[in-house]
Amino acid sequence: MPQPRLADLVADAEAPAAAPCGPLPGRAEEGASGALAAELARLHAGYGDPDELLDALRESVLLVPTLEGGLRAATSGGVRWVFAFSDEGELARFAAAGGPGSAVGGDVAPTPREDVDYVTVHGWRLLDEVVPAVGTPAGVALDVAGRLPMLFPPVTGVVPDTAAVDVAAPRREDR
Q1: Pairing of strands 102-103, 70-76
Q2: What confidence tens digit (pLDDT) does each residue in 86-135 have?
Q3: Which long-range contacts (CB under 8 A, 24 or more apart) does 163-167 make?
Q4: Are 78 and 139 in contact (CB under 8 A)?
Q5: What whole-number distance in Å separates Cα of residue 122 and Cα of residue 14?
Q6: Which of 147, 74, 150, 149 is nearest to 110 (CA)?
Q7: Which of 141, 143, 169 is nearest to 153 (CA)?
Q8: Distance between CA 23 and CA 95 in Å, rounded?
Q9: Who's near 171: CB < 8 A, 6+ residues apart?
Q10: In 10 A of CB 20, how many CB atoms?
Q11: What is the 3-state secondary structure (H, E, C) of the chain?
């Protein structure tokens, strides 16, 4: 059975859009909104609850930049990090910083440009369906150029066990 394409896994996303690389009027200072913003702020302040942050991410609709038909990502430490952003202001910061990475599954280096194409994806879908489809250890890098960045690594409790790097291999009985 063929592996699903990443584009198919974001089928519930809106049509690709573009965000200017500069701050958007009225949005740049807002940062992340709602429960996700509150949990990110609490965790960065040292008293947040990682489980509540994960729940807030799963319930959020995220902006995921695309590049040549794939999702923007970068590899670090043997993990493929799919970029996601909590709002247009955070995506604009990433674009203004020259947004590193390539399309998932590709080796295309981005060039700074005026707009960044993106799709919207529910957090649960990004973690539960897209990350396992990458085919290598993968996690989510949220708001990487922003004030409150956060990594969601490919570990048990964050991604499905089939994509988690900390799941022990089944033991074989010696006979």
Answers
A1: antiparallel
A2: 999 999 999 888 766 555 544 444 444 458 899 999 999 999 999 999 99
A3: 163/131, 163/132, 163/134, 163/137, 163/138, 165/79, 165/137
A4: no
A5: 11
A6: 74
A7: 141
A8: 10
A9: none
A10: 15
A11: CCCCCHHHHCCCCCCCEEEECCCCCCCCCCCCCHHHHHHHHHHHHCCCCHHHHHHHHHHCEEEEEEECCEEEEEEECCEEEEEEECCHHHHHHHHHCCCCCEECCCCCCCCCCCEEEEEEEEHHHHHHHHHHHCCCCEEEEECCCCCCCEEECCCECCECHHHCCCCCCCCCCCC
Tokens of residue 95, six digits: 């674009």
Taking the model in full, what pTM does it have?
0.74
Question: Residue 40 and residue 27: Cα distance in Å, rounded?
Answer: 17
Cα–Cα distance for residue pair 72/97, rounded to 1 Å = 14
Tokens of 65: 């930049």
Q: What is the pLDDT of residue 137?
A: 96
**In the structure encoding, which two tokens stand for residue 41, read together?**
């702020």
